[in-house]
Amino acid sequence: MENIFLEDKRYILNTYRRMDLNLVKGQGSFLWDDQGRRYLDMFSGIAVNNLGHGNKEIKEAINEQLEKYNHLSNFFVSESVVNLAKLLVENSFGSKVFFCNSGTEANEAALKLARKYGKSIREDKTEVLTFYNSFHGRTYGGLSLTGQEKYKQSFQPSVPGINHIKFNDCQDLKNKVSDKTCAVFLELVQGEGGIKEVSNEFIRDLVNLSKEYKFLIIVDEIQTGLGRTGDLFAYQGLGFTPHIITLAKALGGGLPLGAMVVGQELENVFQPGDHGSTFGGNPVACAAGVVVLSKLLEKEFLKEVKRKSSYLLGELIKLRDRFPQIILDIRGKGMIIGLEVGDYADKIKQRALEKGVLLNITSGTVLRLLPPLTITYEEIDLFLRVFSSILEEL
Ligand SMILES: Cc1ncc(COP(=O)(O)O)c(C=O)c1O
């Protein structure tokens, strides 16, 4: 290949502002470029590589499954698929799983299921509410659920019957909910929306209204799930039970895999033929997923994520106290942390890259830290050293 950057531009549709970096290898929390330079990966493929890069057990599980077969069809049972579903069910509120390939597809499944559930109660119980500033994916269902105009404006009309409520605004929820509402979709920490946490008060009202109006609470755990917030699923940290959660990102250990987990009362809403996917629940991705889940469920793993998070947040607060004009706010929990840095975001990202740290920006002004959950204290210190040296320069 003559020049990968030129050929990338020549052959691939321009939908991402790609960085000027040719990464050729990853191990643990680090990536290396084609010049042999090492980078600390502080965004893990946007919350995908929760166990870091090059995990040996994931590779072994993938290879073992590849030796058997890499694809059958959802018309046949498959051991790794059943094993992963069992792990998800046994460690959540859920009782059954539907597998797909991505986050947006998991939300599509949930949207369809919610409408079929609603119609089983009354024909016009099909309305859906989601938050403004939310992000739920790029296909038409996911896009329509998303509460940010910038993603949607060029692609209207959206799927009908989806309205938005102000973030954490109980009164707005009360005003907009009705007997026609079949579901409320929400992220418990808005990821693309700038790392904003839902309040306990909002959840309390949501749960009460859901009982009164018989709508489903559908939690999009695509970014927050699988240990990211320090709990296996973010809803567990808030102490309530949703009706459905949607998962993807970290689920397949770096391979494409999504899932919708439903509670017992919804087990029979979908009947054969109602929904499906050729590749959904690919056996190789599920074999990797079994390793991911098993690791997250090890006794000390998530406790250690919480301890490392407290350390990182504590040190970031000290930096905010030293540089209050740059770090305007710190939000998030576990290993999903947002630093509001206003117009400094791009400059910090660029300087970090030059100093060997990969950072991600969301909402234009927020540095979104999504390191592998396996990041060590030494690696956290490395990030803090680089970050504070950049703050000093600014
Ligand atoms: C909360 C949330 N929902 C849905 C999606 C869409 O997932 P995917 O890109 O796998 O379709 C994302 C992706 O960033 C997300 O963060």
UniProtKB/TrEMBL annotation:
List the molecular function annotations (GO) for this entry.
identical protein binding; N2-acetyl-L-ornithine:2-oxoglutarate 5-aminotransferase activity; pyridoxal phosphate binding
Instruction: Please share the entry's free-text remark on the cofactor.
Output: Binds 1 pyridoxal phosphate per subunit.
Q: In which compartments does the protein localize? A: Cytoplasm
* Annotated TM spans: none
Entry cofactors = pyridoxal 5'-phosphate
SUPFAM superfamilies documented for this protein? PLP-dependent transferases
Against CDD domains, the record matches this protein to: OAT_like
Query: What's an example GO BP annotation here?
Result: L-arginine biosynthetic process
Report the EC code(s) recorded for this entry. Answer: 2.6.1.11
Enzyme class of the recorded protein, top EC level: transferase
Q: Report whether Transferase shows up as a keyword of the record.
A: yes
Q: Does the keyword Iron-sulfur apply?
A: no
Question: Which InterPro entries does this UniProt record tie to the protein?
Answer: AcOrn/SuccOrn_fam (IPR004636), Aminotrans_3 (IPR005814), Aminotrans_3_PPA_site (IPR049704), Class-III_PLP-dep_AT (IPR050103), PyrdxlP-dep_Trfase (IPR015424), PyrdxlP-dep_Trfase_major (IPR015421), PyrdxlP-dep_Trfase_small (IPR015422)
Q: Where does N(2)-acetyl-L-ornithine bind?
A: 138, 277
Any one of the GO CC terms: cytoplasm
Catalytic activity, per the record? N(2)-acetyl-L-ornithine + 2-oxoglutarate = N-acetyl-L-glutamate 5-semialdehyde + L-glutamate
Keywords from UniProt, A to Z, are:
Amino-acid biosynthesis, Aminotransferase, Arginine biosynthesis, Cytoplasm, Pyridoxal phosphate, Transferase
Please list the residues that carry the modification N6-(pyridoxal phosphate)lysine: 249
Q: In which pathway does it act?
A: Amino-acid biosynthesis; L-arginine biosynthesis; N(2)-acetyl-L-ornithine from L-glutamate: step 4/4
Subunit field text: Homodimer.
Q: What else is known?
A: May also have succinyldiaminopimelate aminotransferase activity, thus carrying out the corresponding step in lysine biosynthesis.
What does the sequence similarity comment in the record state about its family?
Belongs to the class-III pyridoxal-phosphate-dependent aminotransferase family. ArgD subfamily.
UniProt name for this protein: Acetylornithine aminotransferase
- Lineage, top ranks: Bacteria, Bacillati, Bacillota, Clostridia, Eubacteriales
